[in-house]
Amino acid sequence: MNPFSKFRFLPVTIFVASMLLTVKIGDIWNSVDGLKKDAIQVAGAAEAQTETPPAAAQPPAAEPAPAQPGEAPAAEQAAVPGAADPNAVAAPPPGDPAASKLITDDPTLLTPQEIDLLQNLADRRREIEAREQELQVRQGMLAAAEARIDRKIAELKNLQAEINGRIKVFDEQQETKMESLVKIYESMKPKEAARIFEDLEMDTLLEVAQRMKERKLAPVMAKMNPEKAREVTVQLRDLRSLPREGLDQGN
Questions:
Q1: Would you say 185 and 211 are in contact if contact means Cβ atoms under 8 Å apart?
Q2: What does the mean pLDDT of the chain come to?
């Protein structure tokens, strides 16, 4: 015997359908109720905004204190950027968008012309730095050249002093030799001295003759060849009319 022969499907199906329909109607009712609540909240918020009283009027600003002697008025100090706070960065003037963009350092806000300008300024800065380095190198080279020139000048001065000293010593030695030679001729007999004078070169003869005492030279020239004696006399006159450089410098 089949146990499901007496089970009726139709009443059960109707019952289940009724239950599902009831649950569905409940969900629909809840949705409609939520929509009503949201509409009421929105309407209440709109009414609250429309009923909000205007803000209270701000009290009038106090009048600035009178400026002390030597102080700028408060309005002028406020107008000067950084006057109140010296560490504050000066803000760009209003209405200058290019300056504002440059200060912000945001490349996305710059135009192509401003980017070109910044690149040109960077190139110019590099060029100036290169020139400054070149000038520093040239200044260093010039200072080194000046130092070398100073050293050369000092060396030349030392060499000049050494040469002058040796010349002075040589002149003193020659003068000593010449005085010794003059004494020899002055001590000789006039005839013998005259014979030697006639064979001497004119320059040597004049150096000896102009150092000899006149009373010693006169007998010697009297014994010399008249033509030679006349020539020596003319040369001695010319020498005595000229300044004696070596003797004058010694005086």
A1: no
A2: 77
